[in-house]
Amino acid sequence: xxxxxxxxxxxxxxxxxxxxxxxxxxxxxxxxxxxxxxxxxxxxxxxxxxxxxxxxxxxxxxxxxxxxxxxxxxxxxxxxxxxxxxxxxxxxxxxxxxxxxxxxxxxxxxxxxxxxxxxxxxxxxxxxxxxxxxxxxxxxxxxxxxxxxxxxxxxxxxxxxxxxxxxxxxxxxxxxxxxxxxxxxxxxxxxxxxxxxxxxxxxxxxxxxxxxxxxxxxxxxxxxxxxxxxxxxxxxxxxxxxxxxxxxxxxxxxxxxxxxxxxxxxxxx
Length: 269
Ligand SMILES: NC(=O)C1=CN([C@@H]2O[C@H](COP(=O)(O)OP(=O)(O)OC[C@H]3O[C@@H](n4cnc5c(N)ncnc54)[C@H](OP(=O)(O)O)[C@@H]3O)[C@@H](O)[C@H]2O)C=CC1
Ligand SMILES: N[C@@H](C=O)C(=O)O
Hints:
Layout: E1 12-16, H1 21-32, E2 36-41, H2 44-58, E3 62-66, H3 72-83, E4 88-93, H4 108-136, E5 139-144, H5 157-176, E6 182-187, H6 196-200, H7 215-227, E7 232-233, H8 240-257
Helix pairs in contact: 1-2, 1-7, 3-4, 4-5
The structure holds NADPH dihydro-nicotinamide-adenine-dinucleotide phosphate and ligand LPIYNW4C.
């Protein structure tokens, strides 16, 4: 058993979507760092197997919770549970789903699934931990966005919109929490080799392999970014600094330029 240094008492991390892909690797990495874990997903059989492995390898406490986070009752039951948990120090808002198709070809059910999971669950779970994190002036929220949150492609309109929400929500939270020791990281991966591609309707085999990162590399880079104090981590971008600065500056400039009581002169009749 690889026993972490328990004297540091990292607390409990909750990882949503821990049964596969990115969330599963976060669960392993956080267990290796000594966090007790709450693992959430619908496939409880997978969570149980992972929980057994992590308990045996790292000697941490692991609580699997079966929940469909797009179901409001099940989401709120989890919210109630984590609001009351004072051991929580880390939230990975990872569970997400994707349908990549033209809007007119996407069912209402698929649209709602993306909105409910990628946005509503992420916001409620963030809200649920925030009160405790602020009161204790301690805690980490990692929100998994996407590079598609910066730009819609014709087949990613709804998915991109959900990830743009994650971008704005996370940037806003970071501004709210300036001056505190609560850390909020936005992770914006590009294509990563997980099942989500098959689920989205665009199989991984349709992608150029030179653009696809392994899930281990993605999560390790994201955690390295967190350790370095990055607030926005884009694992596959070599030099994001000036691009992110330009993006943020353009948003601020547009907001500043809008602060007028009169319509712009081009609209004068
Ligand atoms: N892979 C990629 O290329 C990229 C992924 N992302 C984002 O990364 C995150 C993780 O995706 P990834 O690991 O790739 O995808 P996977 O499909 O491999 O994993 C998704 C995870 O979310 C869980 N999940 C899905 N629906 C629900 C639900 N309704 N309730 C609870 N849990 C659910 C799944 O578990 P279960 O089915 O057991 O419920 C699974 O554990 C997502 O937010 C995604 O948008 C961002 C950019 C790129
Ligand atoms: N998950 C991917 C698309 O479905 C992505 O965010 O690139």
